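User: Fold this; tokens only.

Assistant: Input:
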Amino acid sequence: MPNIPTIKTNNRSFAVFDIDGTLIRWQLYHAVADALAKQGIIDAKTYATIRDARMKWKRRTHEESFKDYEKRLVATYETLLTKLTTQQFEAAAQVVFEEYKDQVYTYTRDLIKTLKRKGYTLLAISGSQTEIVQKIADYYGFDDCVGSDYHQKKGRFTGEKTLTLDAKDKVLKSLITKHGLSLSGSIAVGDSGSDIAMLNAVEQPIAFNPEKKLFAHAKEMGWKIVVERKNMVYELASKQGKYILNTHFALSRQCQSADGQAKTFNPRQT
């Protein structure tokens, strides 16, 4: 766990979390697209192209397969929104919320509970649509959240949008100002390259299950890296150019050394 002091009432320390792939184990807007397809709102031919791209990613056919899948999904998703009523979207978002709200990583779920108990202001910044992000944020007791805003007028989506994905640092800055928060003791948790600017902005950045771009940046900066796999959580801390595995931190203590000390982590041995 990061160093989390008990916050005094006049302190305004905060923690900011990405949602998709950091708290929730899947991408929310992907799940919304699936829900719309199940409702017959996405036609079978269009959905087949999305599924084909997803399977190429799952088979890891090339290094950029996930990005290719996302691009195809987002393009289809944004076109589809202009054909939906806001009521149709809300129904799909509610289905996704009910299905995925508890499908979370234990590390981030427990960290949120600890930080809330310690008096931190909790923020969520996500590239997923505001309507579904708000549901997750309310469920986990976040104080404020920002998601991508697809503009609406008279019960329809206009096609105009305000995205957060590549501007999370700017969104965070506005939330800090809005709530009168302090960078002292601040924490950020994210899993992808789009979270780097947000993580750069705080005192205690945590790269959680990082994808390649974020891992390389975190390693260069000496940031804490946390990996959750099955029923294990591995916390890696940079020390003298190497990452040290804090085995005492794992949810299962079976890999802990006899004296309770951390072991050197060698990626080649995993």
